[in-house]
Amino acid sequence: MAQRLIRMREVTHRVGLQKTAIYRRIQRGEFPRPIKVGRASGWIEIEVEQWISATIAANRAFAQ
């Protein structure tokens, strides 16, 4: 699978969190860190998808 960078707009859309919530989680080590590409930042798509999957799994385990 080819790696792809996604920008903040797509990240917020996928995870359902606002920018400030995402940056707070990054500071606490709870969300993947972006990488710099020139002056812009982007997230590695697979890392965001893995975070989503882990969050769902943790939620499901907690609910049982």
TrEMBL record:
InterPro entries: AlpA, Prophage_regulatory_activator
Name the record gives this protein: AlpA family transcriptional regulator
